[in-house]
Amino acid sequence: MAAKTSFFDAMVTRRSIYALASESPIPDERIIEIVNHAIVHCPSPFNVQSARAVILIGKEHQKLWDIAYEAAEKLFPAPVFEGLKPRIAGFRGGYGTVMWFEDAARFNVLEEQMGAQRWAGVRDKMPQWSEHSSGMHQYAVWTALEAEGLGCNLQHYNPLVDQRVQEEWKVPVDWSLKAQMVFGKPVGPPRDKTALPVGERVFVHKS
Ligand SMILES: Cc1cc2nc3c(=O)[nH]c(=O)nc-3n(C[C@H](O)[C@H](O)[C@H](O)COP(=O)(O)O)c2cc1C
């Protein structure tokens, strides 16, 4: 990626792609390498390194979306579920999913390392900083996968699927599922998107 696409350009290429085929333009090893790279290099509060990723490919990926289908069928009234069915089928039709977790146990370690007094000053912030860090990891991988020709979309079927996911992939109970990033070969364009004027969102003060 770095050799071919600048990060500046990759920010534009990263879009939500829902039309995905069960193929990949890059080898599985490269997908895994990209996730590993993000896990090692993305930032986390006090370098707590609480992000966890479980990569599902092929039939394992399909299993996740079968779990989501069954859970949604049980939970939602029929008209809502009917609307969800084609969406879930679309995710299942992709090539893989990265499940993103945050490991709460790492924050217990951090608390011990910091000591009671320092921890008291930041404890309230940790839940949101954990989410921020997870989002940074997700963004890095989303952007990198799409820069290499995959399409991705980001889903949140947690907590609906949490228990089955824990059982199926032996996920530690301390890991909290944050997002499911579906990927596959893009077979359709991204949806239209509008952008608010930058001048309403960015302000510069310089002296
Ligand atoms: C934190 C976050 C949560 C999102 N959750 C979902 C989701 O649950 N389902 C979905 O289809 N897209 C989800 N998206 C994708 C956004 O809808 C999408 O990024 C936005 O509309 C801009 O489109 P783009 O990704 O093509 O730039 C999420 C994006 C972010 C950043």
Descriptive key words:
207 residues; alpha+beta; NADH Oxidase; five-stranded antiparallel β-sheet; binds flavin mononucleotide; cytoplasm; Nitroreductase
As for the number of domains, it is: 1
Cα gyration radius (Å): 19 Å
CATH superfamily: NADH Oxidase
Outline: globular
GO molecular function: oxidoreductase activity
Pfam families: Nitroreductase
Main location: cytoplasm
Domain Nitroreductase: 13-185
Structure notes:
The chain has 207 residues and is of the alpha+beta class. Helix content is 48%, strand content 16%. It has helices at residues 7-13, 28-41, 59-75, 78-92, 104-114, 116-122, 126-147, 162-168, and strands spanning 20-21, 51-57, 96-103, 151-155, 175-186. Strands 1, 2, 3, 4 and 5 form a five-stranded antiparallel β-sheet that branches. It is globular, with a radius of gyration of 19 Å. The structure holds flavin mononucleotide. Residues 15-16, 153-156, 190, 193 line the site of flavin mononucleotide. One of its GO terms (molecular function) is oxidoreductase activity. InterPro entries: Frm2/Hbn1, Nitroreductase, Nitroreductase-like.
Summarize the structure.
With 207 residues, the chain is an alpha+beta fold. The protein is built from eight helices and five strands, in the order αβαβααβαααβαβ. It has one domain (18-185): NADH Oxidase (3-Layer(aba) Sandwich).
